Amino acid sequence: MQTRNYLGKVTTSPPLYLTVKPPFYLSPPAKSLYLLMGIFVLFVSFKLQKRRYNEKAEKIEETLLTQLAKEQQKLAEVEQQKEQELLRLKEEKCRANYNMSTIC
């Protein structure tokens, strides 16, 4: 590199080599840390989403089981009513035909 001093004399100086290091947030260790943090965030997001999905599925399953239990209870009540109606009809038939003891 050539420069002139205040007297106009040209001087040549040896080149000055400078190495500029990147700021800490662009250094390789920082980039590795960013990558690890990104993977961690994705992992935690996945776990939370899976937990929400499982909770929702359990809630739906509980709802369906409750509905099934109610329907089974209604079915049992209907069966009981049918049996009572059948007994009542048999009793009426026996009363109507009281002379025939073999029917009862």
- Please compute the radius of gyration using only Cα atoms: 46 Å
Q: In total, how many beta strands? A: 2
Q: Percent helix among the residues?
A: 55-70%
Query: Tell me about the biggest sheet?
Result: 2 strands, antiparallel
Terminal CA distance reads 129 Å
Measured by DSSP, the beta-strand proportion falls in: 5-15%
Q: Structural class, from secondary structure content? A: mainly alpha
Unreliable segments of 5+ consecutive residues? none
- Widest β-sheet, arrangement of strands: 1-2
Element-by-element helix/strand order: EEH
Number of helices: 1
- Average pLDDT for all residues: 90
Q: Given the C-alpha coordinates, what overall shape results?
A: rod-shaped
Q: Can you give keywords for this protein?
A:
104 residues; mainly alpha; two-stranded antiparallel ribbon; 1 helix; rod-shaped
Provide a descriptive summary of the structure in words.
The protein has 104 residues and is mainly α. The chain is 66% helix and 6% strand. It has one helix and two strands, in the order ββα. Strands 1-2 form a two-stranded antiparallel sheet. A hairpin with a 5-residue loop joins β1 (2-4) and β2. The N and C termini lie far apart (129 Å).
Short description:
This protein is mainly alpha-helical and 104 residues long. Helix content is 66%, strand content 6%.
Map the helices and strands.
Blueprint lengths: L1 E3 L5 E3 L15 H69 L8
Antiparallel strand pairs: 1-2
